[in-house]
Amino acid sequence: MKLKLKIWRQKNAVDAGGMVSYDLEGVSTDMSFLEMLDTLNEKLIMEGEDPVAFDHDCREGICGSCGVVINGDAHGPEQTTTCQLHMRSFKDGEEIIIEPWRAAPFPVIKDLVVDRGAFDRIIGAGGYITAPTGSSPEGNSTRIPKPDADAAFANATCIGCGACVAACPNGSASLFVSAKVTHLNLLPQGQPERTTRVLDMVEQMDAEGFGGCTNTGMCTVSCPKEIPFTSIANLNKEYRRAVQQSNKA
Ligand code: SF4
Ligand code: FES
């Protein structure tokens, strides 16, 4: 395949940045999107130019590091991570526009790399349980109803990639926060912090500058792990319950 790439280039956090065009030949349909960017970077390095900076780690859809906006869609045309997207999803001769996540709480560090530290700070505010460390307890010693276990597991699959924020017209992190709150608040191990968790995580989400949810649903259709929209309804329910509990205390 031959491609015309238009890529956001930005030297550092304070550089104004801009789109730069590149022609790339010899792209196989079997390449992943990141391998296509690797091919471009090899060419740029051979020509003595600065390679395009982009984030990646596992390249297996599990770490959440990768993520760019491709032709206007977070993670591109398939509902998967950028590392699991393949060039067979594009046509020979196609123009592909590649940009970083666009959201004020995710400032650009360089080119396509953004700082997603805001997510880490939200997790630090309440995305954990209090449990003794040491050997793992026997699997069946804490009984959990199957529907709760299934829902907790589905929400635990959130990889913190940030596509939901990038896709949302409000730059809301509600789907991410709702996945973490739903996962932990459903399980017995998450009960000691059930009330403080949701209050503190929502407070941190607001402090980071993420927008509010207005039910547009772009987050859930862009989410590579298909975190359901109902998790946001559950976040609202948990928040309301936590406010009532803290008013009683
Ligand atoms: S909810 Fe989905 S899109 Fe958002 S961070 Fe988690 S995995 Fe990524
Ligand atoms: S590189 Fe890990 S999810 Fe894409």
From TrEMBL:
Binds 1 [2Fe-2S] cluster. Its EC number is 1.3.5.1. The keyword 4Fe-4S applies. Residues 149-178 form the 4Fe-4S ferredoxin-type domain. Pfam families: Fer2_3, Fer4_8. GO terms for biological process: respiratory electron transport chain; tricarboxylic acid cycle. InterPro entries: 2Fe-2S_ferredoxin-like_sf, 2Fe-2S_ferredoxin-type, 2Fe2S_fd_BS, 4Fe4S_Fe-S-bd, 4Fe4S_Fe_S_CS, Beta-grasp_dom_sf, Helical_ferredxn, SDH/FRD_Iron-Sulfur. Residues 18-102 form the 2Fe-2S ferredoxin-type domain. It is an enzyme of class 1 (oxidoreductase). It catalyses: a menaquinone + succinate = a menaquinol + fumarate. Keywords: 2Fe-2S, 3Fe-4S, 4Fe-4S, Iron, Iron-sulfur, Metal-binding, Oxidoreductase, Tricarboxylic acid cycle. GO terms for molecular function: 2 iron, 2 sulfur cluster binding; 3 iron, 4 sulfur cluster binding; 4 iron, 4 sulfur cluster binding; electron transfer activity; metal ion binding; succinate dehydrogenase (quinone) activity. Its cofactor is [2Fe-2S] cluster; [4Fe-4S] cluster; [3Fe-4S] cluster. Belongs to the succinate dehydrogenase/fumarate reductase iron-sulfur protein family. This is Fumarate reductase iron-sulfur subunit. It comes from Kineosporia babensis.
